[in-house]
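User: Fold this, then the next.

Assistant: Folding the first:
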Amino acid sequence: MFVQLLYKTSLKNIVLAEFKIRVAQPNVLEEDAQAMYDAVITNHLGPGPIVTEFEEKMADYMGVKNAIAVNSGTSSMLLSLDALGIGNGDEVITTPFTFAATSNVIIQRNAHPIFVDIEPDTFNLDPKKIEAVITEKTKAIMPIDYGGQSAEILEINEIAEKHGLAVIEDAAPALGGVHKNKKVGSISTMTGFSFGPDKNLNTGEGGLIVTNDNELAEKCKILRKNGADRRYHHVEIGWNAKMPDPNAALGISQLKRIDEILDKKNQLADYYNKKLEGISEIITPTIRNYNKHTFMLYVILFKNNKLREKIRIGLENNGVETRINFPPLHLQPIYKKLYNFSNGMLPICEDISERVLGLPIFLKMTEEEQDYITDIIRKLVID
């Protein structure tokens, strides 16, 4: 009865008036709700055995030694930095083309983000530009797997090893992705994932740290519990970053079908590519042949900003939500204030940001909805 009621009143049945098609929708099935209900009804409310099970299953899925569940993707990156002892004026090389959490956590640790420009086709951190900015203060490199496609993470790790640096990979959108026959999460010093409502696997809110370093893993477990290694015995200054059991139960349920989810997302992306084929003013996503993309985002690139804005406004006027993924971080007001960043510093990122547009992509999306979106785009491009 509870599950039926939850299903009937779930977010999937709430249609917001301003958009016919949202850019993303949570993917929660009845068995997912049942798993959460079972956790709650058995009084597994805080972090407990279900979280432990989730961690074990996630570590096994990625082929890593350790997985540490936390309350958000942001926490996964923050705790990773702290476990590595990064802060107090240290420098972390990262990308300007991402959600703000990636570099916000660097600043929260009193370290400095050193932005490096992106590749013009994948929009990932350009490894060829990393070594030029390494200094004696550099402690880590923090790339993101943009949209769900791995950065050149093996090459980045080779650069890091050469210079004695750690790699903290922000894989928030990339669970299940593959880079050169290696699962995303199995390569870098530490990797963080996000399980928010728009992710391919969601736990309501939540995150995960994975690492093959046992010492770093143990430190993260302590840091997520306010720095305590046992009750009322604090050996670090930490946070409350724990994941509750009901959230982990949702994650375990969804993990059973994660590969099916990714196959479906790739099918949706392929259909978009087919429908947009032949429009010279638009570039569809570039996928390296050694990568498996997770398509948490489907982002197209226009020939100029004027056309992007025409399409964006036209879609939204027809009830289609879109996103600009992402405005350059170094040009955000707080970053300009803190670091005196200015236009022209990272020309590829700045140019790409003016021309990208994220289209709706979610598991329940129909070909009719994709036809509706692409027909609008074709019409507006021609007009």
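Now the next one, as you asked:
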Amino acid sequence: MPEQKETLLEFPCAFPLKIMGLAGGALAQAVLEIVRRHAPDFDGATMEMRASSGGKYVSLTCTINATSKAQLDALYRELSGHPLVKVVL
């Protein structure tokens, strides 16, 4: 029986992360620090930011060069555990 793959992704690949949280200057900086810890080659200038219609929330999109499932799992865990982050997709 062939061994099943853990993921359908083929690495390396461009992988977009969407992070949502309360609007405020601290969120973007915290997300940037976490993403760079796991993807040191991430260019912070490429981070996209969009405010919600009411302005209370903001979504950040960071497209990283993902190298492994373990890298993505660790990144999701750290982002999800941060107090300023509400949702990670």
